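R.M. (postdoc): so does anyone remember the format we settled on? I'll just put the structure tokens first.
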């Protein structure tokens, strides 16, 4: 029983999931050195009890066999609060960065998985020992799990190093099964963010964010489980 209680308390939940409803063959291309992002809205009911991010999964797409740019092809992902200047349309521009992977080298899906694969699935998690640990970019020793996620923010991709016929983008998914987005996207041109829509189809970046309760709550749950186990043992002895 103690193990069951601890498992229930520490279990992660989806606060946003857009990895289910894919549009076969539909991709959104991202140009070299052009920051592009999508504002997402997390499930506020889940976020109320599980506000701390522990796992972040995303997908990217490339039809190339290999990148002509080789090791120079690198990706950066930022989480940015929408607390910037207000647009006439009523939307707030991306403003404060609260997570940044920094640029890291990526491979084409064909390099990793072979013929027929155009989509790469990448998962970032808390302290998994890899380059992509989810840590606060301002305090590298502080796991991002200690950052209380806002209910809405923009996830921004920037690709660099593409050369020759290199192509990079994301497969299009929509609608999310948990949380929502409005099918629009942000693009940064010369330091100014603009909100755009796609005339062919709503844009939905393939993303999943898993969250957990406050660490102190998890610790209290574990302690409570241990005490309960001791009480049951004493009662049965």
């Amino acid at each position: 029983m103690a193990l069951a209680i601890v498992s229930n308390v520490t279990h992660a939940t989806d606060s946003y999931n857009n990895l289910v409803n894919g549009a076969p063959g539909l991709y959104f291309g991202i140009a070299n050195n052009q920051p592009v992002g999508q504002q997402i809205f997390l499930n506020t009911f889940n976020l109320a009890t599980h506000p701390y991010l522990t796992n972040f999964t995303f997908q990217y797409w490339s039809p190339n066999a290999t990148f002509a740019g080789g090791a120079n092809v690198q990706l950066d992902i930022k989480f940015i609060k929408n607390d910037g200047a207000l647009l006439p349309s009523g939307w707030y521009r991306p403003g404060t960065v609260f997570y940044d992977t920094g640029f890291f080298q990526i491979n084409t899906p064909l390099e990793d998985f072979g013929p027929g694969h155009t989509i790469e699935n990448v998962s970032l998690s808390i302290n998994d020992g890899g380059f992509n640990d989810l840590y606060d970019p301002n305090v590298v020793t502080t796991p991002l799990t200690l950052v209380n996620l806002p209910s809405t923010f923009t996830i921004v991709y920037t690709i660099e190093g593409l050369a020759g016929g290199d192509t990079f983008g994301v497969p299009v998914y929509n609608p999310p099964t948990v949380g929502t987005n409005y099918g629009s996207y942000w693009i940064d041109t010369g330091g100014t963010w603009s909100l755009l829509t796609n005339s062919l189809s709503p844009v939905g970046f393939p993303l999943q964010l898993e969250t957990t309760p406050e660490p102190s709550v998890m610790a209290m749950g574990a302690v409570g489980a241990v005490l309960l186990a001791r009480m049951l043992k004493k009662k049965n002895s």
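R.M.: ...and that's the designed sequence above, right after the tokens. Also worth knowing: The CA atoms of residues 36 and 202 lie 15 Å apart. The longest helix spans residues 215-236.
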